Structures are given as C-alpha cells and as structure tokens.
Amino acid sequence: xxxxxxxxxxxxxxxxxxxxxxxxxxxxxxxxxxxxxxxxxxxxxxxxxxxxxxxxxxxxxxxxxxxxxxxxxxxxxxxxxxxxxxxxxxxxxxxxxx
Length: 98
Hints:
One of its GO terms (molecular function) is single-stranded DNA binding. Keywords: DNA replication, DNA-binding, Primosome. InterPro entries: NA-bd_OB-fold, Primosome_PriB/ssb, Prisomal_replication_PriB. This is Replication restart protein PriB. It comes from Ramlibacter ginsenosidimutans. This protein is mainly β. The protein has one domain: CATH 2.40.50.140. The protein has one helix at residues 55-62, and strands at 4-13, 17-18, 24-38, 41-54, 69-77, 86-94. It has a five-stranded mixed barrel. A hairpin with a 5-residue loop joins strand 2 (17-18) and strand 3. It is globular. The chain starts with a strand and ends with a strand.
C-alpha cells in the first residue's frame, strides 16, 4: 500500500495550471518539522517535499496562504523523468497541531 499522511506547511505554490484535459493542477512545495524517537533517542525531523493536487483540491489549495499548516493525505510517485518522489494529494484538512 502506498499511502502517506503528512502534517506540513505550504512553503511555495506555483500558479494554478490546467492539464491538457482541462483539469486544474497545482504544484506545491511542502515543509515538515517535528521530533521523533529513533532507536530510543529523540531526533529532529525536517523534510521538504514536492507535491501536486488536481481538480477541486488544486483550486482550494491555490487559495491557501503560504505558511498554512495542513494535514495532507495522498500517495508518493516519481515523475516521468525524475527520481525524487512527489506527494500526490488526495485530501487535506486543517492541521490542529500547526
């Protein structure tokens, strides 16, 4: 199963675009910071990940302010000509921890 849940803030959002089929699409850069236990010791975790949303999710996210903290659910996939994963956002909600 490929499912990712990530609390993150929107660090960057490109202009809303449309696919050749006319579907709204939005490219984002998300930032996450937290502390996690690893081998019994606390570790500061920081990650930046590219993300993409389509349809009404893209339209709604395009109206969110940079810095907004949200909880994203989706799946990871590599772009056609890339190596780094991109989070494909399937849903999101306000993050009560942000």
